[in-house]
Design goal:
It is a single chain. By secondary structure, the protein is of the alpha/beta class. The protein folds into two domains: 24-52 and 292-392, Aspartate Aminotransferase, domain 1 (Alpha-Beta Complex); 56-290, Type I PLP-dependent aspartate aminotransferase-like (Major domain) (Aspartate Aminotransferase, domain 2, 3-Layer(aba) Sandwich). The chain has 15 helices and 14 strands. The strands form three sheets. It has a seven-stranded mixed sheet with strand order 3-9-8-7-6-4-5, sandwiched between helices. A four-stranded antiparallel sheet has the order 10-11-14-13. Strands 1-2-12 form a three-stranded mixed sheet. A hairpin with a 2-residue loop joins strand 1 (33-36) and strand 2. It is globular, with a radius of gyration of 21 Å.
Amino acid sequence: MFLLDTLHEGLAGLDARGLTRRRRTADTPCAAHMTVDGREIVGFASNDYLGLAAHPRLTEAMAEGARRYGAGSGGSHLLGGHSRAHALLEDELAAFAGGFVDAPRALTFSTGYMSNLAALTALAGRGTALFSDELNHASLIDGARLSRADVQIYPHADTEALTAMLEASDAPAKVIVTDAVFSMDGSIAPLARLVELAERHGAWLVVDDAHGFGVLGPRGRGAVAQAALRSPHLVYLCTFGKAVGAAGAAVIAHETVIEWMLQRARPYIFTTAAPPAAAHAVSASLALIAGEEGEARRRHLAALIARTREILQRTRWRPIDSPTAVQPLVIGGNDETLALAACLDADGMWVPAIRPPTVPAGTSRLRISLSAAHSFDDLARLQAALVRAGESA
């Protein structure tokens, strides 16, 4: 069949360029030490930054939530699927991360991807000028495209270029959108300067803090709290499948913004609500993150980050200087990156190879994701594996 032949040719082309993606199957819960495809490994692949995904308090909360509310929500939030667990979580989120705006309110979603689509398509449209960092996550890129706004891409974290673009725009509505922590570089956006620009130009500032929420800031309140920012222009996005250790996402903003999204955001209106049990587990995680155990895990993670930066500086490859749990090691070519990942895999280290289009051509890399569940012994094993791989390359 012609249609299948074109797909076969496309798949062959991906494979020839070293761009084929392959899944691996975990046989045990997400953790620093896992069984994957029947083999025991040390995992540096997950976004479980605080090591909470298999925490007994969260797993019990998930089970309790299922006993109380059942396995599924049964409908969209506006048609019977909005449970007491969702309502309580939204109140907790507004209190937990809402210090950056007056009259904060939260709206929960099934995934971070959906929350990003919802925020951008609700706040931007035809006639809106939308300014997007060039390294933003795919969900923000897709949300910008779907919004039908005039999308302008500014160089990564380049606030001078963004200033010039904003000053040249005569659009009646403006939106600036950025990741807080960039998932493939580990860099942090210049949020203070972005807030200043948003206020000066009357723009919304949409901040996706997927990789900072729970890890950065006082009591894990995120990157905006770490920068001590407060502005009515802020629209804050956070996810629960990373440091929180569960599933779902939320948008937190002024109550009027949230009411507008509830009325107009298609990814919210026209989808089944997430299982209430997941929301119940997120509530348990927020309490843990804000408490003494959460603080201890963040301290340990910070020490692991500092040690990993030292290790990567001593390799033959190019690390990207990152202060976060995302520690990239740029190799360059796709084949070389895949070969290094395979060498580490043979040593029992799962460190994923990241290739285009996720990152620019010529910057394929290993993405080392750290977790508070890791030990310094795990880092010593990683260092030894990198040394062996470097000697054999």
